[in-house]
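Encode chain A's predicted structure.
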Amino acid sequence: MLDTLKATKVAVIGLGGVGSWCAESLVRSGVGQLMLVDSDRVSITNVNRQLMATTKTEGEVKVAVLAERLREINPTVKLDVRQEIYDETSAAGFKLEKYDYIIDCIDSLPCKAALIRHALSIPTATLFASMGAALKMDPFQVRATEFRKIEGDGLARALRQKFKKTGGFPARKFTCVWSPEHRENLGDILQPDATDTWGSKKARINGTVAHTTAIFGFSLAGLVLQDVELNVLGRSTPLRGLD
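Encoded structure for chain A:
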């Protein structure tokens, strides 16, 4: 099992409150090869939920800070570190066909839809995706479900609408981590701030807490490990924790 994990290749795309915890969990569990993708730098607004965000790392490149931490955990881990935006125009350059697992932790709807379509077009890769973690407080409602069976998640609903408008649903099914918890949207309306490149791109900030985003990330990592276990041990039972 450990030898298989060492040889397993995982691409984690989006290293925010979900993706950063997912990447660390994968490395601590023995996964030996990762691609880390995120275009942003650490903002003070990330400190409440993102693994590598502290007052000392504010302003630094997220993928670089996270990569340094992961190498301290496992000096032999192989990392492909990319401070880039994944979108339809850049997709080919990521060479996702080289990876066994693709983890979607993207917030942007167009980029997320493009990644899902791309990942599901690769027959040798398994996709796991995160739905919306913002506004979620109850860790006991987080679960894994096939995308088409998700009900009550705003991001999943928006993705369905996006797919319908752009050629229909992807041909292959895929599993998502999500929560049905509903909380009123009380996010702050942002005022333009030329000094804050992160905030200037968003119209509203929704509250998020570390324990929920981390559980989303750990759950995605758990899906990878369970799938590796299934393939190695030849288990015929369904993956634990799936609806």
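DSSP finds six helices and nine strands in the chain.
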